[in-house]
Fold:
Amino acid sequence: MKTIPAADVCTIGRDITITLRKRGADAYSKASYPQQFGVYSEIETTDTVLRFNLNNEIVYLRGRGRDWPHPQEWLKRTAGNDWIYYSTGGYTGVVEAIGEYYLPNTPYPTNSLLGGRPFLLPVVQELTACWHSLIHEVAEQAAAAPADIRAFLAGALANSPDALENRAQALFAISGSRSTVLPPDCRHVDYDVIPLAVSEGCLYKCRFCSVKSDRPFRQKSEEEVDRQISALQGWFGQNMANTPSVFLGEHDALAARPGLIAGTITKACSAFDFQAANIKGGNVFLFGSVGSLLDAPDGLFADLGSLPCHIYLNIGLESADQATLEVLGKPLRAAAVVAAFKRMQEINRRHATVEVTANFIMDENLPAGHYPAFLALVREGLSRVSPKGCIYLSPLRVGRPSRAMVMDFHRLKILSRLPTFLYIIQRL
Ligand code: SF4
Structure:
């Protein structure tokens, strides 16, 4: 990790404090209090806290007034320029349900079963609309501040809402499109990932899936991957040091050639300099499918296990019940799903730094065989409880929170011998 110079703190009048190079947590961890990871700058006023990444782009907002919903709730801006509202959920059952202490509320429709509608609150709407004017007001009062504080404020002002939206579009263009869904394991790094695609499209084009791309599966060439790596270094700039994680896209990176997968991760770890990051550890997240998992040779997992990073591979199994696969329009045999589940357990046992996780669908209207077939794998199919190889239950329908489904989830979670959580679909 780099040595970070001591933070510069500047107080303006009685109400404004600006801190440059403030150090947050240097490792990802789960905590029941809000954490900021990496190194950042902060403007604190009587009413608001604003935080910025190392490119002086706003990444965090929190109101301090009495109308702010909760002192431990905040807004985070993603690399794709979405504001996400993190709520405590009253601390009742959130961590059991999603494996994290804070519940992400997205401004776009998703399949979450929990949470409220924070984006309808006037105080939240106002803060997401006026943060740039707040920086302007602070900059006017900071005319006599030290040069590095004024330079920071000029940079933060240049990163206007329009400029940030253009930056997000430029990021999507590097890999060819926006990542419409990130693997659920990205929760371990708060979804802060560098999107690097080794492929596009997927093998199955399942009928139920709302995030698939229309493009047929295609593996990218090494030249395309190299071009992305160099463009991503430019795009992330200084803030690369706060982002030691890669999402290896797109929907089925595991279906790419093994040499391309391991070679790309090796290049990315070195080009993005995970070793020097402000947050410990390097992580790679990717999706695979039943077919690509069953076809992947042992040697690939041995290679992945020898890389200097943690690999999280998420497989869309959806159901081990044939009638359910047919309802979902997933062109697979249940026997192949069962074989993929067994392969997943084997890889998790053999390779300490590779974790294969799986998604299954949840819905009230699935065929009667779906949950028994699920439990035949995650309960009867395992002789003991294992802490590795999370199972994510993914509600089928978008925008349909449901108490009854949450109860079903808890029943299945208690019976499962693997860590089991709800999957809230988030995009880049
Ligand atoms: S569930 Fe996976 S394989 Fe099926 S269409 Fe969606 S992205 Fe493709």
Q: What stands out?
A: Residues 80 and 168 are 5 Å apart (CA to CA). The mean pLDDT is 95.
